[in-house]
Amino acid sequence: MNIDFPTEISSLRDTLGNIIAVTHPDELKERIRDLSQQAGDPALWDDQENAQRVTSQLSYAQAKLKRLESMEERVDDLEAMVELAGEAADEERGSLLDSAAQDLKKIQTDLADLEIKTLLSGDYDERSAVVTIRAGVGGVDAADFAQMLLRMYLRWAEHNNYSTKVLDTSYAEEAGLKSATFEVNAPYAYGTLSVEAGTHRLVRLSPFDNQGRRQTSFAAVEVIPLIETTDHIEIPESDLKVDVFRSSGPGGQSVNTTDSAVRMTHIPTGIVVSMQNEKSQIQNRAAALRVLQSRLLQKRHEEEMAQKRALAGDVKASWGDQMRSYVLHPYQMVKDLRTGWEDGNTSAVFDGQIDDFINAGIRWRKDQQGNE
Question: Where is the Prokaryotic-type class I peptide chain release factors domain (predicted)?
């Protein structure tokens, strides 16, 4: 074992110091005090949506502060263990250094994860997210791929104990989905998932081809921040066209018995939002309006960013037509074409084990922003 513990510990302290400088623990503690006062107000729960937002933000802030304080203690404990090993007898020194090496590796991993979270500093990064998946080119395979991606993201949220709500599902005729929209209700869900936006490609032997030929199909992922009451995205009724229709999907559901589904069109922009997973037309209309407001908020933000880039004289292209490939034949590999990150365990990836891809994407995005 040839670990230079003093150098490694010094590196840990430097990284932790940078994280603390960005996180501002004193401001975080003040925010926790403010949120705790709001959470202690009995009148808070008169507004269920706001109460959930406050308690969720409080829980996240407390966990964030605890991670920082815990990380400082773990680095201190590691340093103390190494010092103790230096003073121990030979037979005990080896055991202590083995334990120190294991602790060092775990701290490095956890510190890297903590560092990722500090990179989420965009205007809307702390918001919950609304994710829409749409089948692209590839026929029934593309629709099946869209359903695979929906399950992947819902499983990812489940692994992270994030609350989700499927808002709309449009089923394809033979199999899979034409599109699906869902919320991920957790602090920084938007900042985290926004790096997943783009075109995803699947290569496999098609289970829908009677000759078993290889098929390439595509699906698009859109991620927008969830609207909040403070955003003031006012939409005049005259700008809206609202159509109602009967929900589609597997039979036997109560949502299929009435014209409860809502299709809302924003006339000035042409943005269309459909909602059908709630039981009443009123609920679907409210959900559609909220997603429409979120998309208008995102559009406004993108226009502002485009204007800033234009003024700077440096307009860059988007990520391109394809940001990640999922190859199931002739070999097994998922590879992100922006970051170069890859994973040969495709089953785990489709089961929601995508944190490494997301973390690499967040670092890549920060590097791109630094080069602009």
Answer: 246-262
